[in-house]
């Protein structure tokens, strides 16, 4: 993708940069202070995106498994206010388990495949609902589909509100031109963002 259109950020790396002492110091903070630092991180990313005029591509986590065996959500309200699209890396529990076993650089809580499966399902369900509630486009992707992920990112960069409106207007203009040169008795227009009722249909 290059760096002409995009800025790339790894969430934990941004946190490490803004917290004196890095990630190790961050891990020792209380929950409220951690949330504050996470808010600072996404604000830093947002500000960089505005200043450079580039799309921010951010990698990060939604939930962690705590030492006590509970799932902890680390996505913040600030994240939900900034993000417009979320691609969820939808890997099988077996693949995640294998990768955790192969990662010798980082300590991880030992988890069986079944627990990882429950973790994945909880993330998918909760994240999909949060995205719906905050008008964020949510999409499941596979890591092996690199070409598909690239296409999505390029599409996100191109299709802003102005572009989408122009496409809709062009389609409407084309339909009207067609109606002028062809004999049409009925022209059906659907207001697609609401549920149709009997009153919407009129006399057809």
Give an account of the 3D structure.
The protein has 204 residues and is α/β, with parallel strands linked by helices. The chain has one domain: P-loop containing nucleotide triphosphate hydrolases (Rossmann fold). The chain has helices at residues 11-18, 22-27, 31-52, 77-82, 93-102, 113-133, 146-158, 161-181, 198-201; strands at residues 6-10, 55-59, 63-65, 71-73, 85-89, 137-141. A two-stranded parallel sheet has the order 1-2. It has a two-stranded antiparallel sheet with strand order 3-4. β3 and β4 form a beta hairpin. InterPro entries: P-loop_NTPase.
Class by SSE composition: alpha/beta
SSE run = EHHHEEEHEHHEHHH
Principal-axis shape equals elongated
Low-confidence stretches: none
Quaternary assembly: single chain
Percent helix range: 40-55%
Task: Compose a concise summary of this entry.
With 204 residues, the protein is α/β, with parallel strands linked by helices.
Task: Itemize the secondary structure elements and their pairings.
Layout: E1 6-10, H1 11-18, H2 22-27, H3 31-52, E2 55-59, E3 63-65, E4 71-73, H4 77-82, E5 85-89, H5 93-102, H6 113-133, E6 137-141, H7 146-158, H8 161-181, H9 198-201
Parallel strand pairs: 1-2, 5-6
Antiparallel strand pairs: 3-4
Helix pairs in contact: 1-3, 5-6
Spell out the key features of this protein:
single chain; 6 strands; 9 helices; alpha/beta; Rossmann fold; two-stranded parallel ribbon; 204 residues
């Amino acid at each position: 993708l290059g760096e002409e259109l995009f800025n790339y950020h790894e969430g934990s790396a941004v946190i490490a940069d803004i917290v004196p002492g890095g990630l190790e110091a961050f891990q020792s903070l209380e929950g409220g202070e951690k949330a504050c630092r996470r808010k600072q991180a996404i604000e830093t990313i947002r500000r960089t995106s505005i200043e450079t005029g580039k799309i921010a591509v951010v990698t990060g986590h939604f939930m962690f498994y705590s030492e006590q065996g509970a799932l902890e959500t680390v996505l913040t309200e600030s994240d939900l206010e900034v993000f417009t699209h979320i691609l969820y890396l939808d890997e099988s529990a077996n693949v995640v388990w294998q990768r955790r076993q192969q990662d010798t650089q980082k300590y991880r809580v030992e988890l069986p495949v079944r627990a990882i499966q429950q973790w994945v399902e909880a993330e998918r369900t909760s994240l999909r609902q949060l995205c719906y509630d905050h008008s964020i486009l949510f999409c499941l992707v596979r890591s092996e589909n690199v070409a598909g992920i690239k296409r999505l990112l390029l599409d996100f960069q191109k299709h802003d509100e102005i572009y989408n409106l122009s496409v809709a207007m062009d389609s409407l203009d084309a339909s009207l031109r067609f109606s002028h040169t062809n004999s049409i008795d009925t022209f059906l227009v659907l207001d697609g963002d609401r549920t149709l009722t009997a009153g919407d249909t009129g006399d057809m």
